[in-house]
Amino acid sequence: MRIGIITIHNSLNYGASLQSWSLYKYLVDHGYDCEIIDLHRPAHDDYVYSKKYVDYYGVCERDRKLTVRAKQWLRKILTHRSKPDYMIRREEKFNRFNGQIKLSKIYRGIDELYDNPPEYDVYITGSDQVWNPTQPFCIEPFFLTFVRNPKARKISYAPSIAESSLTEREKSDFVKWLSDYSYISVREFEGQALLRSMLDKEIYQVADPTFLMGAQYWRSLAKESPLREPYILCFRLCDGNKLVDYCIEMGKKLGMKVVVLPLAVDRDDKCVVVKDAGLEDYLGYIANADILVSDSFHGNVFGILLGVKNQWAYIYPDSNRGSRLVSLMETFGMSDHFIAPDFSTTCEEFYGKTKNLENIERVIESEANRSREFLLRALTDK
């Protein structure tokens, strides 16, 4: 059986890289001939925009018109300014790790994919926010509408919609695009409820692909942290230093170092900023942290999988993507481990409210087994 996965892959994003690796690795370990469909996205330098396949909010059309002029401008800038050494080191580490994945031929744009689609027995829509209609790229390929063989099986494993509602146009497209899937699963309960209200099909909720590999696997990949003293790890994705500054304040009160991944603007004198961490380094900094603070879904996933003694999630007040974090923390009995939106969570709460690690380990195993059973059944059920 040949399997093709389409997901967000080959990225300098820690979560995207590790979730795509997880699904691929799990299937290969179970004897399947598997590869990831190498569809490039606007972030890739060689991406070719399509006039037909565009996003819902006009970003692709705007960027398509600007792209030639912008690339010429960027080329002039980059010829006079090289990348910082830390960025080169980080990219090299990511490339080595991502290079373990077997990829299809390169599709520089969506038109190339639809003109000459790869052939498999089973096509899988993978995880991450591939069904989020607010993405700045066309999400239709992630519903497998490029597949030509009517006998090929289509399934989804843990894609995220990341929105609490859809427009009428989006609903119509989702219903049409999902009509010939054999099995549909999503990552969040909110997405499950949304699709159930639209489709006359069973919609399953499963864990993020990283749970398929189990906690021990990730511990084996994690590098030892170079820090020997207790530290707070702040892994933040959103711009600005508000979350970093909160961690620095907590660190002062608790007498603990603060480590920040991947960047903190103008805070190098107040914390340890690790700018060149590869994927194994990232896992190591999480695994060895005494307290993890993160606004990242996958940052909190790995805090759970790696058994961090204590962790806190944060959702910015203007974020419309918080449901995925809420769903994750609820599943593991950690709904009370969110830092207040205005950062009013006290030091006593921050340090004193610990995790029930024994219960979390049981839930990890339960979630992993339930999700593995779904995936293997979706592949083999006649």
Could you write a compact summary of the structure shown?
The protein is of the alpha/beta class. It contains 13 helices and twelve strands. It is globular and about 60 Å long.
Task: Tell me what you see in this structure.
With 382 residues, the protein is of the alpha/beta class. Helices cover 40% and strands 13% of the residues. It has helices at 14-29, 59-80, 85-98, 110-115, 168-177, 189-196, 215-221, 242-254, 279-287, 297-305, 323-331, 347-352, 357-380, and strands at 2-6, 33-39, 103-107, 122-125, 153-156, 184-186, 203-205, 231-235, 257-261, 272-273, 291-294, 310-313. The strands form three sheets. The protein has a five-stranded parallel sheet with strand order 3-2-1-4-5. The chain has a five-stranded parallel sheet with strand order 10-9-8-11-12, with helices on both faces. The longest helix has 24 residues, at 357-380. The two termini are 14 Å apart. The mean pLDDT is 92.
Oligomer: single chain
Shape: globular
Instruction: Please compute the radius of gyration using only Cα atoms.
Output: 21 Å
Number of helices: 13
**What percent of residues adopt helix (DSSP H or I)?**
40-55%
Q: Give helix and strand order, one letter per element, not per position.
A: EHEHHEHEEHEHEHEHEEHEHEHHH
Number of strands: 12
**Which blocks of ≥5 consecutive residues have pLDDT under 50?**
none
- Which structural category fits the helices and strands? alpha/beta
Q: What is the overall pLDDT average? A: 92
Order of strands across the biggest sheet? 3-2-1-4-5
Biggest pleated sheet: 5 strands, parallel
Strand content: 5-15%
Straight-line distance between termini: 14 Å
